[in-house]
Amino acid sequence: MSNDLDKIDRAILAALQTDGRMSNARLAETVGLSETPCARRLKRLENDGYIERYRAMLSRAALGLGVVAFVYVRFAVHDRAVATRFEREILAIPRILSCHNVSGSADYVLQVVARDLDDYGTFMRDQLRSLPGVTSVESSLSLREIKANGGLPLP
């Protein structure tokens, strides 16, 4: 799929990763095209699945979410039905920003936000530890964010 991208396609994708609300006129100017061909390329990139969706990046600070934790979740028994229930419940918890099934000593790595340490502790006690299959949980708290989701590298 990525072999179909030329220099202008990559420039469009890079510009939109920086500013997803960019007008077609500004996007066209940025990549050196007139508006109609730019709009056609953008539509093709969307239809071909290079662009999954557009969304706003919200401020954790403005929303009062001062704690970011990376949580390593382990299961004692690896039962597919239990893992499926765990994953379904994870999807319904908004404070879990991401969940990855991983190799290594943990089964899942979660990125979780909370207002403060008390809020995080309550979440761990009342929600996370009671999820299906969870037998142990280890947290690493972010001291400061060096780089946020800056977009995907383009080939």
Automatic annotation (TrEMBL):
GO MF, one example: DNA binding
Annotated Pfam families: AsnC_trans_reg, HTH_24
Family annotation (SUPFAM superfamilies): Dimeric alpha+beta barrel, Winged helix' DNA-binding domain
Transmembrane segments: 57-77
Superkingdom assignment: Bacteria
Domain HTH asnC-type: 5-66
Keywords from the named record: DNA-binding, Membrane, Transcription, Transcription regulation, Transmembrane, Transmembrane helix
Name of the protein described by the UniProt record: DNA-binding transcriptional activator DecR
